[in-house]
Amino acid sequence: MTRLGIFTRGLVKENVVFVLMIGLCPALATSSTVRDGFGMGLAATFVLVFSNLIISMLRKNIPNEVRIPIFILIISTFVTLIDYMMQAFQPDLYRALGVFVPLIVVNCMILGRAEAFASKSSVMESILDGLGTGLGFTLALTVMGTIREVFGNGTFLGMSVLGESFKSAPVIFLVMSPGAFLVIGILKALINKYVKKELK
Amino acid sequence: MTSTRQMIVTLVIVAVICAVILSFVYAFTEPRIAETQAKLTLSGLEEVMSAYKYIEVVPGTLWRAVDSLDQEIGIVFRVFPQGYGGPIPITVGLNEERKITGIRIAGAAEGLAETPGLGVKITEPGFTSQFKDKSGDEVALEQDGGTIHAITAATISSRAVSEGIRKGLKTYADYLEATYDLGSVFPGADNFIEILPDTLWYALNKTDTMGIVFIGIIQGYLDKIKFMVGCNTKGDITGAAILYSQETEGIGEVIRSEAFLERFKQGEPEAISGATISTQALINGVAEGMQKYKEYIR
Amino acid sequence: MKSPALIFLGAFLVNNIVLMRFLGLCPFFGVSSTVETATGMGMAVIFVMTLAAWITWIVFNAVLLPLNLVFLRTAVFILTIASLVQLVEMFLKKAYRALYNALGIYLPLITTNCAILGVTFLNVDKKFSLLDGTVFAIGTGFGFTLVIIVFAAIRERLDQAPVNPSLKGYPISFIAAGLMALAFLGFTGLFGLT
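^ Those are the sequences you sent over. The predicted structure of the assembly is below.
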């Protein structure tokens, strides 16, 4: 597979949220606004890329029997790193994302890529894989965040986009929990209908 | 097949490296985090009542607001009443007249969990500005007998806010009075009634007025001197105390000494040589105050 | 401080872990195709969640906090959970073989169940006492089990219903879950709970 192929695979064909359907918890919980979804996506991408990098670098030295605990140690180090950096430099985002920042450590996509790819591939390929998968995740969260914030709150990144009268009476439930389920359900249905054929 | 020993060693090495990296990260970010927190708190306080300095009395809950002369101009307190979706963090500024100078309700980014689009409207100026200049039982919803107009369809959130503030007023407003130990300059009085905020009180025993207590500020040698004096109805000084002074250590600071302050009870004392400016300043200040509040000394 | 009963109710219904807090979604969708598997998973989750909450609370309050090692929280908690699941797996294999076989691959899957780790974090963030924390974990576990079983029942029926091909599978499941979430929203304010 070409280098570019590795990258686009994670981004589109095997998009974590819309195709593989893993990493759903943060996808639904943090996509109520564009900023939160995008921020969460980037944070998870950071962890994914760096843990892929380190695991790939160390892949020849990690004994097979204890590989999972070691993966977990490496991943949680980067998660704690981004946790504290966010607290220090982006406190508003941190408060909005809440418990989901440390929960990045159990985002199946990260452990999944480490096990399935990074532990068996070169450093460069692992980085590309991490970037593709992570950005695919970010893309999915941002799309959902856009739909939910624009129609559920009348704003995009906090700026009013559909006029004041809409803003005072938007489709509120979209930013609440049932809305998240509905949006992803409809998006998935649309993808099933229009996109599946092209991917085949 | 790797030996058990190799496995454990690798595991331990990785664990130690990770722990070390993280302790660096922690050391690096911890001061930054504390700084951001402090800035956030300060700006929150300034928003409700501007002052020269805020002195934390109860961590995270109560501050004294003072001006550049260390004179108290009010208090700022925080309450966290339970709203519709969770606790609502409210910061309230209260001036010496027990009137609200302003309130600030934390937004969703800081943890507010009220209904989006409805309950969160409590953070908007349209609602919060209603609380300015109100005091006591005025702070209640119209439907509860007060003067605050609730947000339509967000009564629970609105009520939580006004009740939370009203209760906060009851709890903390007393603090405005308790700052000065008035009894220390007027032994024998068991009650004091404020006449001029932070400046003049009647000293009473049961219901009999025994005299007054007043606070004055005068320029000393190095800095201002803030003093408190008790005076009975006969015009005799019952006690004197220094609330604030920054005179020369060992010289001017003699004004704080028991011996010197006692002399005020026997009439106007003499200045102390070597510390003339400081002591004379205090003597003048006391005399000025007695003159100013003469009419209250019945 | 709330009474344990209220904490239980809050975790069970009002702030349901799956429908309101969005934790535990992967197994929620992945292990709910039949009521049988859902029940098995639910039981396992209650067990592991309570144990994990217990152990991590003790580790946090007795070790991390006094030694000023709070920043190691994430790593320590997840490793504790992973080890706990391993131990439970080994124990069941030896002592309760039937149950072990019934749970199958679901047991190791619990490690990545964000609900378990989520509960351990929430426990600490809310500064619960050991008792309150245990009640919180049990309530959350039951909340998870309740919704996963109900959802499985709905899915069993959905699988036999004539559904538009694009909606079949995940989409209609999500929408069904959304309706369940809508229903659970109604619990807000129950007994004064938020």
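DSSP finds eleven helices and two strands in chain A. Chain A touches chain C at residues 21-22, 24-26, 28-29, 68-69, 72-73, 76-77, 79-80, 83-84, 99, 102-103, 105-108, 111, 173, 176-182, 184-186, 188-190, 192-193 (CB under 8 Å).

Shout if you want it in another format.
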